[in-house]
Design brief:
With 335 residues, this protein is an alpha/beta fold. It folds into 2 domains: 119 residues, NAD(P)-binding Rossmann-like Domain (Rossmann fold, 3-Layer(aba) Sandwich), CATH 3.40.50; 177 residues, Dihydrodipicolinate Reductase, domain 2 (2-Layer Sandwich). The protein is 35% helix and 27% strand. Helix 4 packs parallel to helix 5. The longest helix has 19 residues. Bound molecules: nicotinamide-adenine-dinucleotide. Nicotinamide-adenine-dinucleotide (NAD) binds next to helix 1 and helix 4.
Length: 335
Amino acid sequence: MTMKLAVIGLGHWGHRLIPKFLVHPRVDGLYCHDVDASRRAMISKEFPEVIVASDYASVLANPEVDAVFVATPVATHYDLAKKALEHGKHVLVEKPLTNSVRDAQALVELAATRKLTLMVDHITIYHGAVRKIKDLIDSQSVGDIIYIDAVRVNLGIFQCDVNVVWDLAIHEFAIIDYLLGEMPRAVTCVGAAHYGELEEAAYVTLFFGQGVIAHIHVSWLSPVKTRRLILGCTRKMLLFDDTSPSEKLMLFDRGVGRSPDADVDGPAITYRDGATEAVSYDTTEPLFTVIDAFLRSIHEKQEPLANGESGLRMVRILEAASKSLKQQGVRIPLD
Ligand SMILES: NC(=O)c1ccc[n+]([C@@H]2O[C@H](COP(=O)([O-])OP(=O)(O)OC[C@H]3O[C@@H](n4cnc5c(N)ncnc54)[C@H](O)[C@@H]3O)[C@@H](O)[C@H]2O)c1
């Protein structure tokens, strides 16, 4: 079954996704809209096959349009997604779902009432390497996760309405949510803003049950681009370095254990320094997988992995992180 979609918001990200929708085998017609006439003109020129609408209402009123992709600034997500759901359209929203828990909750409820698909572009959990890590965890190949250490920094694009935590750390929150399958019990966050009101660099810590801890460093102010995820597990350890030119996912048979010999001096620890191997994974472009998951979930009437509930969970963590940030890193419980 094929569908007709509308892309709302033709900025950096919406523009990037248009060619992906155009070549997708399940898409047989593409509409788009932006409040900015110059963006609409640019898309008309570059992609003549796309039908460009000068107002959102006409897109919503068009019965041919099955689904809407919202790629506008975060503050507008709620209103645009709500209207689309009210007009019977399935919705894929850019991350984060909304800028408040209250609004995210309302969208989840509206989609459920209308029996429509609501999905969030949590693109990182559709990455082949992240899925491979999940397989390794689920198959007990690496043991239990003890800690997660993540860095996502570059000389990044400043967002107009959200800070770097809402813009970048959400990618790591989504990965951690997917891998651990549980909400953090508490959050701390510190950060700094030097060029405006919104923090450009931040350090977030998530605390889970059993002493599991995750630390996330995000920044728009780094001279180098780093996207690195380390998972310390009881049997093996993993490094996913998305900026490495090759061998991005590495599995280390390294770690520590408790020494059985309690009489020796020094810490009762033994070290294991085994082999390191590169792990292969599905290299399908994550954007394609996101679009595919969205269209498939509509067609098969099944919840996507990055459904509205997962979007809501991420906004809950973001709100708690913002609260901590405002109080210079105070630990905020999440229950
Ligand atoms: N998944 C990812 O990796 C990823 C990467 C970049 C951006 N994003 C997300 O994409 C969204 C857009 O980010 P961007 O970098 O493209 O921003 P942008 O500022 O480049 O583009 C936003 C566009 O939305 C338009 N717009 C604003 N309000 C509108 C409205 N009410 N109706 C229609 N159009 C409207 C603007 O005119 C602009 O062209 C954000 O939610 C951001 O978080 C996601």
